[in-house]
Amino acid sequence: MNESSTGADVDSIEESTSAAPSGLSRRGLLGLALGGGVASLAVGVGAGITGGVAIGRARAEAEAQAAYEFFGAHQAGITTPVQEHLHFASFDMMPRTDRDDLVTLLQDWTYAASRMMQGLEVSATGAVGGDPETPPDDTGEAFGLPASGLTITIGFGPSLFENEEGDRYGIAALRPAALERLPSFLGDDLVPEASHGDLCIQACADDPQVAVHAIRNLSRIAFGRAKLRWSQLGFGKTSRTTSSQATPRNLFGFKDGTANILADDAAALDAHVWVSASDEPAWMSGGSYLVARKIAMLIETWDRVRLSEQETIIGRDKGEGAPLSGGDEFTAPDFSSSGIDPDSHVRLAHPDQNDGIRILRRGFNYVNGNNELGRLDAGLFFLSYQRDPEQFITLQRRLATDRMNEYIRHVGSGIWAVPAGVSPGSFVGAELFA
Amino acid sequence: MNESSTGADVDSIEESTSAAPSGLSRRGLLGLALGGGVASLAVGVGAGITGGVAIGRARAEAEAQAAYEFFGAHQAGITTPVQEHLHFASFDMMPRTDRDDLVTLLQDWTYAASRMMQGLEVSATGAVGGDPETPPDDTGEAFGLPASGLTITIGFGPSLFENEEGDRYGIAALRPAALERLPSFLGDDLVPEASHGDLCIQACADDPQVAVHAIRNLSRIAFGRAKLRWSQLGFGKTSRTTSSQATPRNLFGFKDGTANILADDAAALDAHVWVSASDEPAWMSGGSYLVARKIAMLIETWDRVRLSEQETIIGRDKGEGAPLSGGDEFTAPDFSSSGIDPDSHVRLAHPDQNDGIRILRRGFNYVNGNNELGRLDAGLFFLSYQRDPEQFITLQRRLATDRMNEYIRHVGSGIWAVPAGVSPGSFVGAELFA
Predict the structure, then answer these.
(1) Is B134 on the interface with A (CB under 8 A)?
(2) Could you report the per-residue pLDDT of B376-398, keeping only the tens digit for each?
(3) Do B127 and A229 touch (CB under 8 A)?
(4) What is the pTM of this model?
(5) Band (A65; pLDDT cuts 50, 70, 90)
(6) Other CB atoms closer than 10 Å to residue B370's CB: what's the count?
(7) DSSP letters along B376-398, please?
(8) Using a CB-CB distance cutoff of 8 angstroms, which residues of chain A are in contact with residue B131?
(9) Is A3 an 8 Å CB contact of chain B?
């Protein structure tokens, strides 16, 4: 264990659980023992009585808030109706960690994630911990808040399988051939502090405090095993995944995600999003590939563009989002119409112009203050899920002549294999270590 | 007008309105003309029909969302029930601007702010502007969103009155004696990119996209006259201003703002928040002084502190927020009790220990990604309103021995005079230029 003077005290967390066989952390084991279903996860809430009255987030204000199931055929947070807020985090494994460290980390993340998605504290010691003479397991800023639709989605980057240090975890042979750093695209201006990483966690929730709490606590649990590499907050979902969600707008002021794959379109999900049992490798069956792109928008420049030009660039009208070939938002664009520019975004990105290729988008807007020129540091944190990274690569290459490129810069990039959902009693990615 | 190749095109905005007398911008004049009340602000919505169907945010999804009045005795956003999200922005006037530039800027901000707080677009040309051959007045990302409880609060910094260039706007003699940069406090570690500024705008809303839209558009309107100096997003209000709001938690996991001044406590507001008619200078009557402090929290270090020590530092229990002298959250602390440490935060900050001094707090949590060590760049964006800056200064000096100081760093600081509310037909700060 790394003995740095800062970071979470995992030893003290572990002390509150019973002994475990070597090779499994005690908390990891507890996670497995509790994995039998949602109901059992409520065990232990309210057990931590100290310094006053124990409170559980689950029994706080009975708000009508969604709570999603962590366990299932696919990981949550992919087809789940897009929430209002994002905290995305990329992690690197710490030096000199071994396969057991990685496995127990995934077990501990599974346990904590399954609890937090139910609106519970990060461990069974409850809101303020079991022992006043140890640091609380849970950092506390979400006490009293409901689950708020939290989903936690975990992925494995190419470097987890093999990096310059070699095959650290004995899984190099199992790396999907398609899981490699994305190629360079025209106009890429990537910065290391928003790119790549051994592991990723996408936390989405309708309350940003709940999403931040999840990333903070999962980072803390990772102490000594994995370290936060970079992270990004987002808001105002720019894609929809259910037909009941109105199409949101991106920071160019246009509706975004009109033609997205929806969660109830099982055929499209099977064709374009989920890795099938016939795809390689077998351990990825039921999973998906996640691409993240931090796309800075030059919004002050965009805001000087006349409306007619903005609409030509996008290929849709700004008010309704209808294609410039006519109709309303959901009318299929007619690319034979002279109304749609050949290098408009809608045409270059459209499945009809890309051999039917589709992806499931799940992006968010971001604003990180401003730069020294007084321009907002703002843009789109693009997230997409696809059955094969080649789908994204093909589409992104197609966008090389996109007229929108004058107003955006891709500054961050990452790709992760998101394994299938977790069975009760197991943990994220268990098939990879079977 | 600055002819930089980026930034908003104010000329084109102005072209859509009629001629105005010199010394008043045409948009400023329009603002005054429309200032007669809320109902009249709906004029023009839907008038901008181009490229499809015009939409107004006001007639989009009929959500039960608050819309607050811009005009009134005091500016909105001080006693308004604290919203879920903040975008705070500090501005500096541009070089070679004159008094007319400042006055017309305040008029234009008044006009736009009064519209946006009603859920309308930034000008009467509506959602996508009146002329497709000009850039739309409104940047568009809030089309279709309700007012979302937006408040816009505008303040004047010490440097607006006089700086190293002198008395740029002929108002140096009217600077309140108390309006000067805050003194240095023990432990200050201020950075310029989060400190000071000629003007500030506090935009609060229950939807971050609405708050960001407000700051973006007010920055754009300022083009050529004032430039964004720094800005900060926040979430998860850490104070409450009505008794119906539950006390939220800060990123140390503790309830924050239990003893805040509430909006219905008129006597306390008059005593501690509003500048009275008998205070100097007269133009500040009905206003307040805003202090902003960006307080970085060393959360990974805090998270290693045992619960009993965390509670001793704060002086309250973590679960309920009750003082350690006993009772529940709203029980008055008994400072004669040995349960409360003399250097606990609750004791040092309490009015009973500070000659009855109170302030109205309105802070938010913030997370700006993480640093290169993998630690979250997170903390409290503290905002307080007081009748006299001396209230804050006294309290902050009192906190010199606060045990919490080991876990926080003040990295940003600013102070602004927030003038009284605006009468219909007038503009923010008009009394200063009378």
Answers:
(1) yes
(2) 999 999 999 999 999 999 999 99
(3) no
(4) 0.87
(5) low
(6) 22
(7) EEEEEEEEEEESSHHHHHHHHHH
(8) 307
(9) no
